[in-house]
Amino acid sequence: MQSLESQIALIEESVGKDTQIYLVKLRALGKLYLKEQDYENAVAIYLKSNVGLLKQIEQIFQFTGESQKQKYLQSLTEYFNEILSLSDELTIEHPELIISALNCILTIKGLVLNSSKAVIRSLEYSKEPEVLNQLELFKTYNDSIARLHELPYGAYTFLIQDLEKERDAIGAALNRLYYDGKANEPKFLKDWKVIQRKLNTSEIAIEFARSPVLDDETGQTIDEQYVAFLIKREWTNPRRINVFRLEDFKTLFNTSPQELFASRGSRVAINKTKALNYERAYDLIWGNIAPFLEGINHIYYAPDGILHQVPFAALTTRVDSSLSHKYDLTQLVNTSDIKSAKGLITIESAILYGGINYNYPLEADQSGNYTYLRRQTNTEFDYTKNEDLVVSKWNFLPGTRTELDSIIRILKNEGLQFKSLTDENGTEAAFKHLNGDSPHLIHLATHGFFYNRALPRVVIQERHNNPYLYSDNKLMHSGLLFAGANFSWEYGSNPFEVENGILSALEISHLDLSNTKIAILSACETGLGFIEGSEGVYGLKRAFKMAGVDTLILSLWQVPDKETAEFMQLFYRFWITDKTTVHKAFRKAQQQMRVVYEKEPYKWAAFVLIE
Question: Which domain covers residue 205, as residue numbers?
Answer without folding.
Answer: 199-288+297-324
